[in-house]
Amino acid sequence: MSRKNKKSRSKRGSRTQGQGNHRKNRHSGNKGGKGDAGSDKYHYLKVMKKNPRYFGKHGFKPPSLEENDEIINIGELDEYSEELLEEGLAEEDGDQIVIDVSKLGFDKVLGSGKVSKPLKVIAEGFSESAKEKIEDSGGTPVQGES
Predict the structure, then answer these.
(1) Residues of 63-91 as b/e, b for ≥16 C-beta within 10 angstroms?
(2) E strand or H helix that includes residue 120
(3) Among 4, 15, 18, 123, which has the highest number of CB atoms less than 10 A from its own CB?
(4) Which long-range contacts (CB under 8 A, 24 or more apart) does 14-21 make?
(5) Which of 63, 65, 64, 45 is nearest to 55 (CA)?
(6) Contact present, 136 and 113 (Cβ < 8 Å)
(7) Domain extents for the chain?
(8) d(CA 146, CA 140)
(9) Considering only CA atoms, which of 72, 71, 76, 70 is closest in space to residue 114?
């Protein structure tokens, strides 16, 4: 239904336009603050209608959050080699234990820890210290095979 005049027109000439005492409808405090005040509290719906992406981060991921290689230390492989043999995740080839780390969900082997058994480790990548320790214990690092 249409009306002849807007409500604001009919209130012209009145000091308070139907708001009671004239102080009650003045200044920014009576409308909830200036600008974007209360945008995360009582004006939240207004902000979400105007700009739903107002809060939060958007855009590029920083390089520190990019996907990295899954790594394992050579000391851990040496420690768990017997368990891996029992579970069928590793094989024996002569005196060496053959471990394919890609089957375990790892990409790269790092050199922390001690190697006491001869291991043949198959991985996409090795650190220099990991290669050195594997070779010193009588094993062989094999890169790139699956």
Answers:
(1) eeeeeeeebbbbbebbebbeebeeeeebe
(2) strand 119-123
(3) 123
(4) none
(5) 45
(6) no
(7) 71-143
(8) 15
(9) 76
Give the contacts of 44 (CB within 8 A, at least 6 positions apart).
38
Q: What is the DSSP string of 67-82?
A: ----EEEHHHHHHHHH
The residue whose two tokens read 């990295």 is 68
Phi, psi of 70 (to 5 degrees): -80, 130
Q: Are 122 and 99 in contact (CB under 8 A)?
A: yes
**The pLDDT of residue 110:** 94
pLDDT in tens, 75-112: 999 999 999 999 999 999 889 999 999 999 999 999 99
Q: Which pLDDT score, from 0 to 100, does residue 5 have?
A: 81
Whether the CB-CB separation of 122 and 97 falls below 8 Å is answered with: no
Total count of residues recorded for the chain: 146
- pTM for the model stands at 0.55
Of 96, 93, 139, 117, the C-alpha closest to 126 is 139
What tokens appear for 29 in the block?
A: 């405090």
CATH (one of 3.100.10.10, 3.30.2160.10, 3.10.580.10, 2.170.270.10) for 71-143 = 3.100.10.10
